Amino acid sequence: MKARKPDCVVIGAGPAGLGAALAAHEAGLKDVLLIERDVELGGILPQCIHDGFGSIIFKETLTGPQYAQRFIDRVEKTDIEVKLNTMVLDLKPDRTITAVNAREGIMEIRPRSLVLAMGCRERTRHQILIPGYRPAGVICAGAAQRDINIEGLLPGRRVVILGSGDIGLIMARRFTLEGAEVEGVYEIMDHPGGLTRNVVQCLHDYDIPLHLSHTVTFIHGRKRVEAVTVSRVGDDLKPLPGTERLVPCDTLVLSVGLIPENELSKKAGVVLDPATGGPLVDERMETTVEGIFACGNVMNVFDLVDYVTHTAEVAGRAAAEYVLAKGRRRREAPLRVEPGRNVKFVVPQLLRGFEREVSFYFRVQHPEKAVRSRLVAGGEVLAGRRAKMVRPPEMVRVKAGPEELKSVREMGEVRIEVLPEAGAGGNGAGEETGDDVA
Amino acid sequence: MVIVGGGITGCAIAREITRYTPDVVVLEKESDVACGASKANNAEVHSGIGEDAGTLKQKLNVRGNYLYDEFVRGLGVDFKRQGLIIVVTPRSVPEEAARQLSDEELRELLERKIPEGIVAYGEKAGIKGLRVLSRSEVLQREPNVTPEAVAGVFDPNYGLVCPYKLTIALAESAVINGARVFTNTEVTGIRVEDGRVRGVVTGRGEISTGLVVNAAGVFADEVAEMAGAGGFRIHPRKGATLLFDREVTSEYVRSSVALFRMPGMKKEHSKGGGAMPTIEGNLQLGPTAVEVEDKYDTSISAEEIEEIFERFHYLLPEFPREAVISAFSGVRAPTLEEDFVIEASDRVHGFINVAGIQSPGLASAPAIVEMVMGFLHEMGIPRNPRPDFDPVRPAVPRFAELSDDERDRLIREDPRWGHIVCRCEYVSEAEVVRAIHSLIPARDLDAVKRRTRVGMGRCQGGFCTHRVAAILARELGIPVTEVTKSGEGSAVFMGETKDILARGRGEADRS
What we know:
The structure holds 2 protein chains of 2 kinds. Chain A is built from 8 helices and 30 strands. By secondary structure, chain A is of the alpha/beta class. In chain A, the strands form 8 sheets. A 5-stranded parallel sheet of chain A has the order 6-3-2-10-22, covered by helices on one side. A 5-stranded parallel sheet of chain A has the order 12-20-14-15-16. In chain A, helix 4 packs parallel to helix 5. The longest helix of chain A has 20 residues, at about 305-325. Chain A is globular. By secondary structure, chain B is of the alpha+beta class. In chain B, strands 9-2-1-13-21-20 form a 6-stranded mixed sheet, with helices on both faces. In chain B, helix 1 runs parallel beside helix 10 and helix 12 crosses helix 13. The longest helix of chain B is centred in the first third of the chain and has 22 residues, at about 105-125. Chain B is globular. The chains are: A alpha/beta, B alpha+beta. Chains A and B meet through strand 8, helix 3, strand 13 and strand 17 of A and helix 9, strand 19, helix 11, helix 14 and strand 24 of B.
């Protein structure tokens, strides 16, 4: 068995892994290894042929492949080592990796730092327990997107979509453009799950109906999907008897949520946050296990790739600093960033250092109009950001600079909350402009 | 010699026949063996403790369980006796009955009389090794069981086996010894002349034979009628089970765990189900018992899901609801009498019914085989084993279970061992290719899945379906658009992109 000891290994070569590997390399690490289980670099982006990527980072709208290519080109100009078709089988708390590929067999790798960038996977029909049969033709939206955009295969001709997450909306349009009939998009909540721009550009523009407060309550067809039963749901999200409607179709596409892929993180002993499904990280994106960093959708599911890239750069740089400090660094006991009013979760969840600017990402629990998001420590408002509207699908970012963080350190506590504009106040520091993403 | 039905019963009988003669054919109407109840049960080798005294079912179950280690020997299939814990709680007794007892009497009943009664009942049926457990023993063995547990009984005989892998292994062992297995071959008639079986008519032609074993599961009554050897009716009853992510639930229960209910409290005809590990380590909860009209009704209803959640919320209060990765239903094949019907027809010479085989059919299989062989020997199957019978069907290596050194060695021989196609279950391309070219060839996604576990993990095929479909297409020499999930009518893809646009909307609408 070949044992290698690179400065940094990045697991996963999607936008998070590409960004982290580049950042680690640029911050001075010579031996960076990027491991990818798929056949090419870019993760999910090569199949995301629609546009809308990069509005914050590049100030232009790119397609997924274009966005990925900008990073792939940069990686190719470096001596970052890339292993494609390589699967990490095991990961230990001391960062020992066991990986395999067809060319080299089983490998043991002991990097001096590690970045987790495995992304996320789709929730399946069983996780939401849709009753019925188990025929061919029940497919997750991301898998359908891959079939159409990469494999050139059409998973269905007459399609019902459950869930109005972004991929579901984008696939409604994609199936329509292929000439397939999209009967409708059904959403159990009373509001769409995806970005507003996607509801407009993918459904409204193509006259595809969106049925809010509806769900699929039975899948018919023994061999291939023949129909689904849809029902209206009540306030408790339970189907209302008597509202059932049979919708003939050959395919049910599911866009019912994404789950960070943390099987390896767990093997490494990394502590996960039940609110995000991803590792607890500090402002350097370092997990609870020293020398193991995380970024992108493995931490929590982002709705914008630009944010993924940003966390990747933080993680990659921090991994480099960790290695270059050669163990001289002192790891402070962390301060917990508390989610306050109308905040579902915040990343990073922990603060250990207070010297550099930190972007806090969070989601709200419920939609709210005319609000101010703010960072509060010891009753003092340190940073804030106004918004006309906040919605759970649209992540909010609040930045805090060294000045504000100094206060946080002094107070020994920090909270992020969303308040109605009238009672908000605040000094406006850290407010973002120009990249509201609707 | 023809066997109708490629389930556990039919394949076990076929394999045993090849010990004496290679002249046996198995006919299966689905695209693979183990496509009925044999693939959708709880994978438990019961002991017989749950069966009614004096039934053929109980007799064959007790005997079958006893024979199991020998039965699976050489087949390359894992078998583990994990045991069963029958839990006694205040809910084991009907409320009205409990109310009529003093607290002390009730305690005596729950802590002593019921457990001792269960042990005595089992021992009378010939079940060995049963013992009463105290409350603390129950909770020590199974910490996730309700704290309301008062006492229990441990039955060490309960075993776990993967039922479809065992069925496939039996079928392959039969093939190694000369049997032929025809899938996609539906029996449409039995030719009987002068009260003797002469042949079996199928959708693919007729086979001349003087001996037919009817092991057609839920369709056994219809096959028996074709021969004029019927007289029983199968009324399908489905059972639904929820399956959990093994990463979350491995060791959640170490033995099977069932709640004891006094006779008369059971709902419908089922042993009442329980919480069971699979041999791979997933927790399973179920099954339900619902009478259905349609023998193909393998659906699972919202009510069944609710019922399972409710029932096990009591037995395992904290079970991880969110870790469900799959739900499935199987259709049981009970007769009206609820017992096995295993008989050489007295009306049609050469026709043997092996019907009404519902749970504990998996556990009883070795004893059913013994009984059927008794008939067959009388009907002329040689009594002396063949000297060239090969009892070994080698185990199929699985990447996930190999040591790193073994993996490395295999990859050097065949690099496809190093190409992982299923990231949840760590299945390599080499395993998929082997399954496709195995003795009972896997020709669709589900058949590959049953042999390799590809797509059985938490992503349920989200990442690997297109990869496995591509390998199937390549190995079978067919376009990927012809790859199916489970045989005819279950195409995975509806065409290629631009198909509809090229042919115009009209055609798409008609399809």
